[in-house]
Amino acid sequence: MNMRDAVFGQALLSIHIAVVYFFTAVSCQSDSSSSVVVAGYNISGPAGSKLALQCMSGRMVWTRDRVRDRQRVVHWDVYRDSPDYAIERVVDMFSAGDQRLYHTHNLGRVSLNPTAFKDGNFSLVIQDVKLNDRGLYSCNLHHIYCHLHETIRIQLNVTKSRRKQQRFWDGQKVVHVVLQGTTALLPCINRRSVWTDWSNEEENQQVVHWDRQSPGVQHDRADRLVDLYASGEQRSYGPLFLQRKMNISNQAFSDGDFSLTITDLQPTDQGTYSCHLHHHYCGLHERREFWVTVEAPLIENTQPVISLPKDKDTTKAEAPRVINVILPDQRHHFLLPLGYVLTSFLLLAFITLIIIFITRRRKAKGLFCRLSDYFSFSFS
Question: Is 105 exposed, middle or buried (0-12, 13-18, 19+ CB in 10 A)?
């Protein structure tokens, strides 16, 4: 019996450990899968280059709110179409509960729920409704720390007939028709934790992490590259050479720039990179994806670069130029060219004389022949 109980207890312990491991794994994966993809980019670069995957968000900038009661505020405005079509501020209230009315005629009859930032009820109460209370009212919620802004609009009409009291939707806003002299309740309810939670910002940690999926790998099987917390803690994963080539700025939460820089890009770095931004307090869960491809490395040109002559700069004085002339050692180096010229001239003159001599000789011979023929004919 004891042996059977021991085996049964060991089996229960194994099942308990398996269940705990399963839920731990699911919770770790849900942190990545729960984020919403807000952008996707195709990025390529040559092998050996430096690649930057830009991931920026102003809502993730970490700031310590030293005046916590003023990081959230609600204010009601009214737009009147007569007489001057103006927008008036009715009342506002900070998260500490302090209310401020902007007109003396609203004292004692216009108010907000003092516990609005605890129960999420920001409705406006108007007692003793008057005809000039008619207008388009807007409930504006501002969360300065989380950069959130939400608005609800309600049209208030005042009637003197009890039978005309009603509420309806006109296609764009809710319309309340209220009897004059009664109390009007303009609803504005938002019970999201970002408006009602009073937890310290240190307990609602901001975290950014980068994942990488090799080609063909599913998202839930991605490898974690780095975790970065607003407290300054940073955790890198993978081999040491991989940690050294992938970096995030130390001022990421101060600048809102969580870009990942990859140095010495290689074909093995191809894949899908995901930048996850989580601000649990503000309800921010975003993911940006980058599809990285590696191209062939750039071939450097080994030919010398021929620089074109630059335009002469007249504003600068030209440096003196020095020309070195090397003369031969022979003293009669000037006579050699002169001798070649004289020889050529004499040869040309000699050829000219020969031509003249031959020409005259032929002319004289022809004249002698004619004279001989003449005298021979005369004597005969």
Answer: exposed
Tokens of 354: 């020969």
Per-position pLDDT tens, the chain of length 380: 444 444 334 443 333 333 333 333 333 333 444 678 888 899 888 888 888 888 888 878 776 655 555 578 999 999 988 767 788 999 999 887 789 999 998 999 999 999 898 889 999 999 999 999 999 999 999 988 788 899 999 999 999 999 999 999 999 899 999 999 999 999 999 988 778 766 555 544 789 999 998 888 888 888 999 998 888 888 899 888 888 888 888 888 888 889 999 999 889 899 999 999 998 878 888 999 999 998 888 776 656 655 555 555 555 555 555 556 555 555 555 567 777 888 888 888 889 989 988 888 887 777 667 666 666 656 55
Alpha helices, DSSP H only, in the chain?
2-33, 116-119, 193-196, 240-245, 252-255, 335-379
Strand partners, 142: 73, 149
Please, which contacts does 91-100 make with residues 24 or more away whose CB atoms are closer than 8 Å? 91/124, 94/69, 94/70, 95/68, 95/69, 95/70, 95/71, 96/69, 96/70, 98/69
The DSSP code for 318 is P
Exposure on the CB side of residue 50, measured as CA atoms within 13 A: 7
Contact 141/121 with Cβ under 8 angstroms?
A: no
Residue 285 sits at the vertex; the CA angle it makes with 273 and 68, to the nearest 5 degrees, is 135
Q: How far apart are CA 113 and CA 151, in angstroms?
A: 18
Q: Distance between CA 133 and CA 131 in Å, rounded?
A: 5
